[in-house]
Amino acid sequence: MIRKGTQAVVVNDDPTQLRLMSGLLERFGLEVEAFTHPEKALRALRRRGPVDLLVVDLHMPGLDGWKFCRLVRSEDFPGFEDVPILMVSATFSGAEVEEVSAQLGANGFLPIPYQPEVLKRYVEDLLEGRKPRYVPQALVVDDDPEVRITLGRVLEQAGYRVLLAPDGKEAGLLYRRVRPDLVILDYHLPDLTGEALLETIRRPGDPAVVLVITGDADPRLAVRVLQKGADGFVRKPLDGQILVEMAARARRERALLRVEELLEMRTQELRASEERYRTLFTTIPEAVLMVGEGGVVLQGNEVAERTFGRKGRDLVGLSLQELVRGDAIPQVLEGLQRIREMGEGAFEAPFLSGTGEVRYFEVSGRSVEFQGSRSLLLVGRDVTERRLIEEERRKLQAQIQQAQKMESLGVIAGGIAHDFNNLLVGILGNASLVLMDLEPGHPAREHLQQIELAARRAAELTEQILTYAGKGKANLEELSLPALVREMRILMEPALSKKAELRLQLAEGVPPVKADPAQIRQVLMNLILNASDALGGESGTIEVRVRTVVADRELLRRSFVGQDLPEGKYVSLEVEDTGCGMDGETLARIFDPFFTTKFTGRGLGLASTLGIVRGHSGAILVQSHPGRGTNFQILFPPSHGERRQAGGGGGPASVPGDGSPPAPTPRDPSPPGEEPSIPCGEGGDGGGGWRREVVLVVDDEAAVRRFAGCVLNRAGFSILEAGTGEEGVQRFQAHREEIAAVLLDLTMPGMDGREVLKRVRSISPEVPVILSSGYSQEAALQGLGDGPATRFLRKPYSPSALRGLVLELTGVHRPESGEAASPTARKGEAA
Length: 831
What we know:
Elements lengths: L6 E5 L3 H13 L3 E5 L2 H11 L4 E5 L7 H8 L12 E5 L5 H9 L4 E4 L4 H12 L9 E5 L3 H13 L3 E5 L2 H11 L3 E5 L7 H8 L7 E6 L4 H9 L4 E4 L4 H44 L3 E5 L5 E4 L1 H7 L3 H4 L13 H14 L1 E9 L5 E13 L2 E10 L1 H54 L7 H24 L5 E2 L1 E3 L1 H15 L4 E7 L6 E3 L1 H19 L4 E12 L1 H5 L10 E10 L6 H4 L17 H11 L3 E6 L5 E7 L8 E2 L46 E6 L3 H13 L2 E6 L2 H10 L4 E7 L7 H11 L5 E5 L3 H5 L8 E5 L4 H12 L21
Helix pairs in contact: 7-8, 14-15, 14-21, 16-17, 17-20, 22-23
């Protein structure tokens, strides 16, 4: 009984026999590892150690089964001395072969072909420590029952397992099913002659011994049957013992003849194979090389000669390394070694053509026998053009993917900025209104100013979000990266884990770069915080380096952004940690918007970093390995004295008077406290004799409508409110004769501001319209035509900006306000 998990290794250079043997052993319940090359099998055995059973073919080129046996039983394979070895052979058989095999360490010998049940019995005996004994099988074919029985008893006593057949038909069936070692065949059978049966069963290389018996006295009969392939001829009456001795001699002779027959067959096959190889070698349209030991070229076809610019005599004898680009030699040697070990394989490498041009070849190789030794047949296909096309396609796909990522980030960031700006209208505006009503020395005034200042800082943040997304703009200035890193050390150290050691390596003489200091600080803090998180609370170092580097094309090609930058000198900012590192899958996604490996966080830090680097015409490279830390390297072009704009998709920065908060000074050039103190709803006809005019405020944010209404009420206007685009159009239609101006939010659900503007203009082309949005002016007004009565007001806006713009557009003069004569919106701001 074969226990579960029994492991066997099968070695046979004939793939058909290897599959057959392996399949049978697996059917018996063994776990099988199969090898066509004995050298590879030996390496695997040395690596994995002893197994439960070895099945080895005797006749193999280079290292035959006997040599294999001798090696396995040597001191080089400790632990294999008790591993049972079954030697099999389709070429050799007989007592002498079995004896030699046993002397060299084999525990059993089984000739091929064999019956599955015989193989199973051999395997069970070897696994249980018994020496298997081969029982030869004999088939007796005679129509005389007495002869059949008598011969059967004699052969059984001689050690044969006997099968009996009365006619040719049954004999043919038994022969094909059992494949006996000996056939005793009567010449005269009821259904056909022994000569005819001999023709059907005898095949070249067949190991069976056939002895023909007959009572026919025809002297020509013996010659005919021997010519047909019989191994002996005996006339009746028979002496059983003589017949057994003749069978033994014939079996030994048949073993020798069989070797000769097999050698002849293999010689013919080899000749045919060589002819096919020669034809293929000369006609194949690829470069073909035969390479021997040490990578020496033994032969090359005409395509190879043309490819490498060398005639046959000049090509033969060269080392393959001489035909390979220098830096690719280790790669090629590794590929050749892999083919030798595995028997076949493929690799791709750059080779040097006859003109010195580098051409990439896809090399397929196979280990073959050539001129009596093991060589490598290599077929090279020129894939240079394909590589160039694939590289261009890959770069294009990467650029498209990166553009889609940045567009996705821009859409989300713009939406966040817009919504945030809507909230800031209420916060900043109401704080400004309250400040108008307070006396200069009121105790709450300082707190309100702090609220106003915080709101303005928040507005600056929304502008930064748009800049990260590539939609904002920033004026660049000459910046020394070493100086910036030194200044930020005091901010970086408190942000690190307590066990992290921060090191700075700041080279001397680093040229300045054109950069936005706030954005570069943000990039540096993002990378520092990521490095700190990578340490995971463990001790480690974070090193920040600034230096000048020379970037070649290969370095820039590996960049996540900036692959098309010119080669040359760059200022390098590096942040390197000794943390956990990243695997390839994570590394491929680190710049994706909203991808994060942290428990908390929105996944925008590195996406923003990528946007900033791109906006500065820089490059960013990342190297990381699990357990070995991460290195971020950012390359900035050195400054050459010109002033440039960062960013590439957000349009021009807001001009004065578009309602943007003053940036970044905390002091408002038109302080809200200097606005006239007019309570909401109290402006109007009384006291000043003003004519109250109507302003339609259309905005989906109630807080914005309330703030705008309050400001305009103070300025003496009446207010109509609409919370949707549809409602705004309806109210304009109902009150078009009374409405002096429209304050219209561009971004609303349902009918948006653009559609509302279109409908309003169709009703009253000349009515003044103030378009308002949390987006930049260029992004908000893109696609809208010019209009003399159209202005833009960026959220969040101050009361003075809103009031001044409405007064300008309506032409209303408020001398007591002190501002109507100098409207905020300037001529250049018309959409």
